[in-house]
Amino acid sequence: MTIDQKVRKTLDELGIADAPGVEAAFAEVRAAMQAERAALIARGAASESEREKLCKDLRDRWLARKNGLLSAVDEKWLKAARKELKPSVGKSFNNLRQESAALEIAALARDVPLRKQAEANGGIPAGGSPPMAAQMYRETPSDLTLPGNRRALGTLHPVTQMQREIEEIFLNLGFHIESGPEIESVYYNFDALNIPESHPSRDDWDTLYIDSKTVLRTHTSPVQIRAMEKYGAPLHIIIPGKCYRRDNPDASHSPMFHQIEGLAIASDITFADLKGTLDFFAKRLFGQKIRTRFQPSFFPFTEPSGEVSISCIFCGGEGCRVCKESGWIEVMGCGMVHPQVLRNGGVDPEKFSGWAFGLGVDRFAMLKYDINDIQLFFQSDVRFLEQF
Ligand code: DAH
Known about the structure:
Distance between the termini: 63 Å
CATH topology of the largest domain: BirA Bifunctional Protein, domain 2
Strand content: 15-25%
CATH superfamily of the largest domain: Bira Bifunctional Protein, Domain 2
Number of strands: 10
Bound molecules: 3,4-dihydroxyphenylalanine
Number of domains: 2
CATH class of the largest domain: Alpha Beta
Helix content: 40-55%
Structural class: alpha+beta
Largest sheet: 7 strands, mixed
């Protein structure tokens, strides 16, 4: 039975009595519709007027209000359907009707090629080509010596660019790059770093726990311990990587962000080395005019601990909106590695001393590129990203 005959019989006459049967019948109609459309596209038309006629014929065959195949489906299958089959027939018919939009004349004409054009491009004999060849032919460029379509090259993400720039400065100072797992044990993330059980950062409102012994690392500091265990002392490393905290996203917070940790351990390291290195780093990154300021602070894994600020890169220290009129911008935490932390890493604090720092790469990138919302980094909006 042809599809034309089928749609002119009722479902009862066709012996279709359940929903799967209905679905199969509609699938057959849909397949016929798609096949006829594909055949016309493969065939192409010899002229605009022939194309118009062919498209109209196919459209009318399926969509004409009187005697069109879809009208027949409506009359014979839907309207005449038994009550219990109505819902499934109705649903399938709606889908079919939506898909049949591809048979409207404009939609067809867009896709049906003119064979004349193909010939002008280099000569397929009119009417003589099999459908497949005609289609492939259309995709062959006429002059293979012309340059191809170039895809625009992307750029590195601004956070990656910032990370690489910082890495470069420390690599030139003789530091190595180390990395560690983002899924970290509570031991490395907290205990080994001297962060006591009672510390607020360990609360599950601040930290994303995987289970009671495993977290998404909240900072890159745990890699200090891992690296000491692995390499011993002396050691000069930086540790870039992703960190996670249970923060609601806003202009300055993101539950995922990036840090770079620094760690230097040797037999005669002092706070003066720390100050000199970080001052050199800040000047390399932001320019020779930048000054650094060290203020006392507290971190459980360093003693003494400090907070580093740089003179405001926007106003030069005069006071502005960004530095909140203070002339300084706080950029990282640092300190002399706590003797217990050295011990936890297997390094003898009687023989070795060290300093460490931790900075937020996203925040550095925001400063450097004058961006006021950290969310922009993670929204993948090309209009933002292509500016870098
Ligand atoms: N881990 C600290 C944080 O995420 C940052 C930090 C402070 C790292 C001082 C250090 C340091 O190595 O010495 O807030």
